[in-house]
Every structure is written in C-alpha cells, then in structure tokens.
Amino acid sequence: MASHVLADRYRLLEPIGHGGMGTVWRAEDELLHRHVAIKEVRVAPDLDPDKRDELIARTMREARICAGLSTHPGIVTIHDVVREGGRPWIVMELVSGRGLDRVVAEEGPLSPRRTAEVGRQIFAALDSAHRAGVVHRDVKPANVMLLPDGRAMLSDFGIAVSDSEDKLTLTGKLPGSPGYVAPERLRHNVMSPAADVWSLGATLYFAVEGRSAFERPTNAGRLTAALESPPDPPRRAGPLRPVLNGMLQPDPEHRLGGSALDSALAGVVAGAGAEDATPTQLDVSGSLPQTPAADRAPGLLDSAPLRPAVPMTAGSLAPARLDRRGWTRVLASLLLGLLTLIAAPLLVEYLSSVLINDDPAPSPSVENTAADHANALQDAPPLPEGFVEHTGDGFRVAAPGDWSAAQEPDGLRISAPDAAQDVLLTRVDLDGATPVEHLRALEAEHAGRPGFRSITLEEVDHPAGAAARWTFETAESGVPRMCSGLLVADSQGRAAMVVYSADPERWEQEAQTRQAALDSLRRA
Q1: Segment Disordered: which positions (predicted)?
Q2: How far is CA 353 from the centre of its chain?
C-alpha cells in the first residue's frame, strides 16, 4: 500500500495514525510537490450495504464540514477528496505535531499556563465551528494536535454534525469517547456547542492532570462516572481549577462558555508565573520563583510582586511572609479565575509561625501574651462529628473527613471531593494596619471588578487577638464563588487568614461546615 498512488497524484508513503474510521497516511502530492495527510476510510467486507453507504456519507460530510471551516488556523485544512475502490479518501493538511495524548504520555502533564493556552486555541476553533452551525462531538486529547511552534489544532470532524447536514450516526456506535462525552449527550443525545465545551474541559483536565477526570477501569465505569459523579478533584491545576469546574458543570445551562470562558482562560495565561512557562516545570512541592510585576497580568488583588516562597517539604509549610500587596497577589491568583486558588486550606500551616511562635515572648506586662494566644487556640471548640484535623508547621485546621489536603506553592489546600468547597490558610503582613483596616483596603481594591461584590466586613471578637471577618462573592473567571474569610492578628502584629470558599448553591446548606472550618484553627 505504501507505493500506491491515488488519482495519479497522491503517493502513499507511511501510516501515521489510526482511528475508529481507518488509517491516516503521510503522502506526497506529486502535482504540487508537497506532503499531505490522507485519511483512508476502511470498510469491512461483510458490512451491511446500508451501513457501508452511511459510513461513506459520514466521511463525505466530514470533508464538506471541514472544507467550510478551513479558513480558521486552528482547524486542519481539507485539500481534496478522492474516490477510489468504492470509498472516499480525504486529502488534508499535514500537521507536523503530536496528539495531546501522546505529548502527555511521553513528557508528562502540561502546566496550567500551557494548558490554558491550548484551551484558548482549541476553544477558538470550536467557536468558529459553532458559529458555522457545526458541533464537533468528539473533542478529546487524541484530536488535539500540538505543533512545535506552540500552536494547537483541532482535528477529526468525523462525527461532527452541521445544522445543514443530516445527523448521521453509525448504529450501535457511541457518539464520542468515554470520559469525554457530555452528560446531556449520554442521557438524551443532545448535541450542542455546550457539549463540546464540556468535552474540551475534560480534555484540558487530562492535559494538566495527566489522567481523565473520570478515570475508571472500564468504559462503562467512565460513562457512569461522567453521568453520576463530579470530576475527580484536580491536584495540579492550580489557577485553572475553577475554569475546569465551570466547563465540567453537568447542567449545560450553568456551564462556562462563550466570551466568559475565553476571558477565564486568558486570565490563567496572563496571571501565571515564570515557573509555569514550560509544560513540565510545574512542581507544587517546590518554591515559587519571583516574577516582576510588569510580567504579570493584573489580578483581583493586584499590586506588587509576590515574594518567593521558601521551599516546602511534605510535612511542613515554610513561614514565608507576604506583605500586604503580596497577599493581594495571593488572593489575586485565588480569586483571579473564580478566586482561582481560594479553594482550599492553604492557611492551615502558616498559622503556627504566624500567630505565635516566630518571635521572642513579649514582656509579662503585656496583657495579651503569646502564651495567652497559644492557649486560646488550643481551647478551640470541639470538632463536629466526621471532621478530621490536618497538621502543618505547628498548627491544625479541620475539614470533613472525605476532603483532600494538598501542599501547593502558596500553602496547604483542603478540597471537597466535588471541588465545590475548600479552605485556604495563608500568612499576612499587616504592615501596621489592623485586620479590619487591611481587609477594607483589599475591599477598595476590588470595587468595580466584574463579578465582585462585598457583602459584609466587620470586626469580630477572637480569643487569639484582633480579628475581622469578610464575606464576599466573585466571578473573576466567569464562575461565581462565595467566600468568607477570617483574618486574625496577635499583639505582635503577626497575622493569618482562613478563607472558606464554595459554589453559591452550596453556601446556605454548608453553613455549619463553613463555620466549623473557620473556627477550627488551633495549635498542634
């Protein structure tokens, strides 16, 4: 076959890919002296004639659909269609890249920034198709091509449907790939742009995590998980987490899409630090390199550059201090894409060195001594049933037993299985301000930002020292999030903030969880 010439023009050279519909060949166009890719559609000899005709019609439809979309740089160009041996051969642009599935298998997961870059490019290609009335229906890692020049392209519109075409589907065939098919398609075979967005979200999850969001031993298990379960909590996604959460919403009416999705992905690309510039450099157990403020895009709590974090070990969180503007950078990353990282328990481990043990003990004449504060924290209310304490750097914080804790560059994060709730702990340098003054300064910086609304901000009593509580909502990445933070300072000005964050629909029903998490800070 490798010496075969189609239509006296296209010489087949070598197979470069295989799929459910046949083989893709590298070929030479002997008329224009260029290399092309040719899709050979294999038809089983014993295939029912009606199904054979359906398969051929489907292939021709793909050629027509892609030919109409080929002006977009993110979609593989169709050059020609040749009929030979009773079936069509599609002549396409030869893309000198690798599938996303291969890249991850060979090099490991992509960084959040690179994943967001790929996501923006593929979403732009999908958006172009959607505007032309075409739904792809099979967005998955194997159909995302990564080119050496950094571009990403979308391929294989083989099961795409167009508003102007018949909706053909091979009898008995799943219209897509398990783990990448939107729930509404599995339930009702609803084909819409929102379903492609869900599949893209699952694809980006794979890119940044190195595994499926619904990884199970069997295809049936993956289908069931996509139908009935939330995606597995991501571990490496960082600022991309809320974007993935928005894209993988089971209800298409609540799914992130359109300009909001593009803006959210752009925010991750612009807000990522230099440590995130290459696909394999993300290491959540290491330090956070310093990046000049000029190289960063403005975040929700933007101002000055974030100071580099001290390297962390698995058992401790280094007490790196952040000035007030640096803390705004942290919340910026958290609130940037939905309070992007405001999802979990970063604050837990910082409190040990923050509230009490960093400095020499104050004079006994000082009314609120460090010992008083330590005792106050040790006397925290008993934990609710089912809560588990997590320890870091001399302090403990509690969360429900099925939540997962993970060290990240900014601290320790504890997240619910469905990523709908989390707790964050981080250290704050008040720079001479009181807790309420510090929060009011942050509130003023946020005012007028899209999706942000301050609800309450007030001083509160706390046994460890001066404290203030702030409740607000944000939608910086296009996904709404409710947040409640408690900022506490001791008599020496050492301070830490615990932030609980949740999806709005869970806010009221999880009031007890929220309060218990905020109240749980104590000495280890």
Answers
A1: 277-307
A2: 31
Same domain, 45 and 69: yes
The three-class DSSP label of residue 426 is: strand
* Same domain assignment for residues 233 and 356: no
Does a structural domain hold residue 284?
A: no
127 & 32 share domain: no
User: For the chain, what is the domain count?
Assistant: 3
Rounded to 10 deg, the angle between the 258-271 and 324-336 helix axes is 140
Q: Which of 50, 80, 138, 393 is catalytic?
A: 138
Residue 183, pLDDT score: 92
Residues 399 and 345 sit within 8 Å (Cβ to Cβ): yes
Query: What values do phi and psi take at 55, rounded to 5?
Result: -65, -45
Domain boundary among 276, 304, 327: 276
Residue 282 lies in a domain: no
Note whether 203 and 63 are same-domain residues.
no
pTM score of the predicted model: 0.52
Which pLDDT score is estimated for 330? 37
Burial class of 60 by CB neighbour count within 10 A (0 to 12, 13 to 18, 19+): middle
CATH number at residue 309: 3.40.1000.10
Q: Token pair of 495, please?
A: 């301070």
> For residue 161, what pLDDT is reported?
52
**430 lies in the same domain as 488:** yes
How far, in Å, CA of 315 to CA of 196, rounded?
41
Q: How confident is the model at residue 477 (pLDDT cuts 50, 70, 90)?
A: low
Question: What separation in angstroms does the CA of 92 have from each of 10, 110, 171, 518?
Answer: 11, 28, 27, 58
DSSP line for 449-492: -TT-EEEEEEEE--TTSEEEEEEEEE-TTSS-EEEEEEEEE-TT
Q: Average model confidence (pLDDT) for the chain?
A: 73
Residue-wise pLDDT for 325-350, tens only, equals 333 333 443 343 333 333 333 332 33
> What Rg value do the Cα atoms of the chain yield, rounded?
27
pLDDT of 356 > 80? The answer is no
- Kindly state the DSSP code that residue 223 receives in the 8-state scheme: H
* Residue 287 falls inside a structural domain: no
**CATH code for the domain of 55:** 3.30.200.20
pLDDT digits (tens, 9 = 90+) for 50-73: 877 877 777 777 677 777 776 788
Query: Which residues carry a binding-site annotation?
Result: 39
Give the CATH number of the domain where residue 233 resides. Answer: 1.10.510.10
Helix, strand, coil percentages, rounded to 5, for the chain? 35, 25, 40
Q: Which residues are annotated as a binding site for ATP?
A: 39
Bridge partners for 499 per DSSP: 424, 485
What the block records as the tokens of 278 is 């290459």
Residue 70 belongs to domain spanning = 5-93
Sorted by sequence, the CB contacts under 8 Å of residue 373 that are 6+ apart come out as 355, 356, 463, 464, 465, 490, 491
Active site residue 138: yes
Range among 45-49, 132-136, 436-440 rated most confident:
436-440
